[in-house]
Design goal:
By secondary structure, the chain is α/β, with parallel strands linked by helices. It has a single domain, classed as 3-Layer(aba) Sandwich (Rossmann fold), CATH 3.40.50. The chain contains eleven helices and eight strands. Strand 1 and strand 2 form a beta hairpin.
Length: 331
């Protein structure tokens, strides 16, 4: 066997070994996510949810994939003759976990303020690798546009929000909507390819995946690798590394942003970096910085914490400022 063949065999063995190690670690981390989601569902995630809101769950939005669905939240006393503004929520979970049903405290508080809320399941990585999650999200935008008359909702300018990985995908949508070069990178549903957004809510997001890997956030390498379909970050091309990080595609036309960061979040610097880039481009960016022992990653999802309720107050005020006609008097 010549030297080139030996090197090829060694490289093939290394890749197989690395993939096995990734699969084993993924299974371990994924099982922890499932446990934490269940525990959160039974305790803090949905505590303090609003009971003035009705819910319709598991609405399929993609005819070609029945696993993809959204949950709808709207006030029980909503006047059906009045068109409602729309808020789309994209859950976090390291791209490998999270469900709409475990974000109901947050989403019902937005719906309580008069918004038609659609909370999306967009597919967990690595089974849905980049760019499938964002492409699935655009299928949901298309579904909302197709059903706008049925629900009497305003889809001309939708609000979008999310936490952690969901904030990453939210920022990606914001960049796609305002940067033609970035828009052209994706195979998007033509019904929603040019969807515009009234504003974005970015809760402890991951906007620069390359820099995120240098930060002391548990399992961040595995999360990024999973988002890339199990492909190690080092094996991505320079173009691929850039494309997965929406911070590189901000323009002055980027939608207004309400950003949340946390004192005890190792990823907080990514929000500060994003805010700086937005401000350099003249984009409105309001930052809520949570402090204290409870100011952990994505804390604003729960509503039993004082700082979370303060963040929600700011978020609702931000939404009302950017809604053409405020859906309800401020509370």
């Amino acid at each position: 066997m010549n030297e080139a063949r030996r090197r090829q065999k060694a490289e093939e063995f290394r890749k197989k070994n690395d993939r096995l190690l990734y699969d084993l670690k993924y299974a371990y981390v994924k099982s922890g996510h499932v446990k934490n989601e269940l525990l959160g569902f039974l305790t803090v995630f949905n505590a303090k949810r609003s009971f003035r809101v009705k819910v319709r769950r598991f609405v399929q939005y993609a005819p070609d994939n029945k696993r993809l669905y959204l949950d709808i939240y709207e006030r029980k006393d909503r006047n059906p003759s009045v068109k409602s503004p729309v808020f789309v929520y994209i859950h976090g979970g390291g791209w490998i976990g999270g469900l709409p049903e475990t974000r109901e405290a947050f989403n019902t508080r937005i719906a309580e303020a008069g918004y038609f809320v659609a909370s999306l399941y967009y597919g967990h990585s690595p089974y849905y690798p980049h760019p499938e999650p964002i492409q699935n999200i655009y299928k949901a935008f298309a579904w909302l546009k197709e059903h706008a008359e049925e629900y009497n909702i305003d889809t001309d300018a939708i609000f979008v929000g999310g936490e952690s990985a969901g904030a990453h995908l939210t920022a990606m949508a914001g960049a796609i909507s305002t940067n033609p070069e970035y828009n052209a990178c994706f195979d998007l549903d033509e019904r929603s390819r040019h969807q515009q957004f009234a504003g974005l809510v970015l809760n402890c997001g991951v906007f620069d995946l390359e820099k995120a890997r240098t930060l002391p956030f548990r399992n961040i390498d595995l999360y990024v690798q999973s988002y890339c379909g199990g492909k190690p970050f080092e094996e991505l091309s320079a173009e691929e590394k850039k494309e997965i990080s929406p911070i590189h595609y901000v323009t002055p036309a980027f939608p207004p942003v309400f950003a949340v960061a946390a004192e005890r979040d190792p990823l907080a610097v990514l929000t500060f970096d994003m805010a700086k880039v937005l401000q350099q481009n003249g984009v409105e960016c309001e930052l809520y910085f949570g402090t204290g022992r409870c100011a952990v990653h994505a804390f604003a999802v729960v509503q039993i914490l004082k700082i979370s309720r303060q963040a929600m107050f700011g978020i609702r005020a931000f939404l009302h400022r950017h809604t053409d006609h405020s859906p309800l008097p401020r509370e």
